[in-house]
Amino acid sequence: MRGLAMIIRPIQHNDLQALHEIARESGPGFTSLVDDRDYLEKKVRHAIDSFQRELHRPGDEHYLFVLEDEATGDIMGTTGIEASAGDDRPLCHFRREAEPASRSGSERLTRCTHYTGCTEICSLYLRPRYRRANAGKLLSKVRFLFMAQNPHRFSATIIAEMRGVSDASGQSPFWNWLKTRSGHLDFATVTRLAGTATPEMLDALLPAEPLSTATMPTEAIRAIGQVHEQTRPALKMLEAEGFRHRGFVDLFDAGPTVEAKLNEITSSRHSTRCRVQIIDDSMPAITRNHPGNRDNVMLIANTAVSDFRATVTTAAAWLPHHNLLSVPESLARQLGLSDGGMTCFLPLATTGKAEANAHTNSSEVLYAH
């Protein structure tokens, strides 16, 4: 059996350097991973502590995963979950509303904390040199398997803040307009502050009164609710999962926030929890040569928390009549699975047309806030 090409696991202390490189590579607008080593070191410590906690309900936990190349040990990307966003520091957005008595169709943007206490998926980034088949799917979907197995750790409502429009030089058309009312800070500085500054500082930075689009230039208006060109694949994946935009946008780049109910997310509903049957690597699974199982791509995860592991593979076979997933010994060892123990898997080869279309261009970078 071929070895694992890539594996998802909780972040560790020795991943800090790679995380710092990702924060630099991702550039302005990636507010959940700012280019500040001390900030990132605290984030890693907090993530490790979060995975180790025994919980009955969500709190300030932050679960940060890394995607590791099994052959080289390189960190290919990251993905994360904020268990209860906005509890330790306000989670603010602009709410889009029709301007009262407007004849021009202009809108009003009002600051609010609508999503306080919701679970936020975040920090999704696939490094450009590690683009390959199923890497983006693994980074995105693994969070839903982890949440499906541990629903008590998360809110019933899941949100994702999508990176808004900015150009190659880091200029945001929305912020270029808003900064004239907010201290004239450049976009890179303000997005760095979004991740590191105190709530009081951010509150003083932004205007308190509602903003009217009637005074905005066309470029800024067009950016409201739109995503960065390299974030489109990530948004398409979430839309295929059932996420929808309800009119809330980011304070700095006006990128959309999308939401879904945990128990309605496609990957959560279609995942299967079952027992493991471990077989010898040289022995084909009972139904391996059956057309329904041949080259069937699956996302497989163990059921641990601090020792969580997941990957994408074609080496396992689902035996529905026995409620067993047949797994080669070497794959089981790498995922920490035991014979007769539990696993969770999600078929990827049977995704619907909308989701398949989201992955037609595998060369694109995937990232969101």
Compose a concise summary of this entry:
This protein is α+β, with helices and mostly antiparallel strands.
Q: Structural class given helices, strands, pairing?
A: alpha+beta
What's the number of helices? 11
- Helix content estimate: 25-40%
Major sheet, described briefly?
Answer: 10 strands, mixed
Mean of residue pLDDT?
Answer: 87
CATH class placement of the largest domain: Alpha Beta
Q: What is the architecture of the largest domain at the second tier of CATH?
A: 3-Layer(aba) Sandwich
Strand elements, count: 16
Low-confidence stretches: 287-291, 350-365
Instruction: Give the percentage of residues in beta strands.
Output: 15-25%
CATH topology of the largest domain: Aminopeptidase
Which descriptor suits the 3D outline?
Answer: elongated
Element order: H for helix, E for strand: EHHEEEEEHEHHHEHHEEHEEEEEHEH
Calculate the terminal CA-CA distance, rounded to whole Å.
Answer: 37 Å
Which strand order does the major sheet show? 1-2-3-6-7-10-9-4-5-8
Q: What is the CATH homology-level superfamily of the largest domain?
A: Gcn5-related N-acetyltransferase (GNAT)
Backbone CA Rg? 21 Å
Domain tally: 2
GO molecular function, one term: arginine N-succinyltransferase activity
InterPro entries: Acyl_CoA_acyltransferase, Arg_succinylTrfase_AstA/AruG
Keywords: Acyltransferase, Arginine metabolism, Transferase
Protein name: Arginine/ornithine succinyltransferase
